[in-house]
Amino acid sequence: MATGTLPDAGQILNSLINSILLVDDELAVHYANPAAQQLLAQSARKLFGTPLPELLSYFSLNIGLMQESLQAGQGFTDNEVTLVIDGRSHILSLTAQRLPDGMILLEMAPMDNQRRLSQEQLQHAQQIAARDLVRGLAHEIKNPLGGLRGAAQLLTKALPDPALAEYTNVIIEQADRLRNLVDRLLGPQQPGMHVSESIHKVAERVVKLVSMELPDNVTLVRDYDPSLPELAHDPDQIEQVLLNIVRNALQALGPEGGEIILRTRTAFQLTLHGVRYRLAARVDVEDNGPGIPPHLQDTLFYPMVSGREGGTGLGLSIARNLIDQHSGKIEFTSWPGHTEFSVFLPIKK
C-alpha cells in the first residue's frame, strides 16, 4: 500500500483560514500565519517582536486570566473577543495553549457573522417578547388610568373650594403623562406615509434640530454620500429614529464633549428581513464617547433599558420598531472611545 507524505507544520499553518500566532509571555509576536497577517493588516516581518496589544486600538481579552490559566498548565478559551484594528471591529473566538518550548499558541476564529446573526435573532426575539409584554401592560394600565382621570374630573366639579382643584388637576396631569408614556411604548399603530426622496433631507432636519442643543465642546460632522439614491420612507418616522440616536450620542459624550459623525453610504447586496436587496441606504451615527457598558449591549433595544440616569429607555426601542416597519434593521458596535449605530433601509427598485 502506498504511503502518503504529510505536509510539514508550516504548510499546514499557512493553509488554515483561522489566524494563528506564536507569542511569548509578553505577547510579542514570533510567528503569524497568512490569515493572522491579513487580520492584523501587517506583514510577518513587521509583526515580529511587537506585543499584540500594541497592534490594536482595543483588545477585550482578559490577558491576566489567560496567563493564569496557562501558568496552571491549562488551556484557555474566550468565545467572544473583540479587537479593533484601524477603526474596524472584529469579533473572534480565541484559544490559547502553552507549547513545550514555552511559547504560547493563539488561534483566533472569526465570529463576526455568527455574532451578527445571533444578535439579529436575539433582537427579533426581544422585540416580540417586549411587544407582547407592552401590549398586555398597556391594557392593564390604560383602563384604571381612564377611571382615575374620570373620577378626578368629577371630583373637581364637586369640590366646594376651587383652590382644592389644584390637587385633582395634578391627578389628571399625571394620568395623562402615564397614558402618553404607554402610547409611546406601543409606538405608531398605523403605517406611515412613505414618499420617495433623499434621506439627506431627513438628516439635515436632524442636524438643524440637534445643532441648537450642542454645547461648545461637541462637534457634529456631516459625511454624506452624494450618490446615494432616493428611497421610499416616512420622513417623520426616520427623523424620529435618527434624532433619538443622535441625541443618545450627545448625552453619552457628557460634559467632556467630543465628536459626533452623521454618515451616509450605499450598501450593496444586503439581506433585510429575509429579502435580498441589491442596494440599501446605510446611515451611521458615530461618537467617541465612553462606549456602551458590555452588560447593557444584549438588552439595549429592550424598552425601559437605559445606561443613563433618568433615561426612559424608550428611544432605541421605538427606533427599532420604526425601522422594522420600513423592512430595515439597526446594528451597533461599541467599545471604549467608540460607539456606532448603523441604520439600513432597503432601496426598492
TrEMBL record:
Organism: Enterobacter hormaechei
Keyword Cytoplasm part of the UniProt annotation: yes
Xref: NCBIfam families: PRK11073.1
UniProt entry tagged with the keyword Hydrolase: yes
Protein name per Swiss-Prot or TrEMBL: Sensory histidine kinase/phosphatase NtrB
SUPFAM superfamilies with a match to the protein in the record: ATPase domain of HSP90 chaperone/DNA topoisomerase II/histidine kinase, Homodimeric domain of signal transducing histidine kinase, PYP-like sensor domain (PAS domain)
Its biological purpose: Member of the two-component regulatory system NtrB/NtrC, which controls expression of the nitrogen-regulated (ntr) genes in response to nitrogen limitation. Under conditions of nitrogen limitation, NtrB autophosphorylates and transfers the phosphoryl group to NtrC. In the presence of nitrogen, acts as a phosphatase that dephosphorylates and inactivates NtrC.
Domain of life (superkingdom): Bacteria
EC number in record: 2.7.13.3
PANTHER family: SENSOR HISTIDINE KINASE, SENSORY HISTIDINE KINASE_PHOSPHATASE NTRB
Subcellular location: Cytoplasm
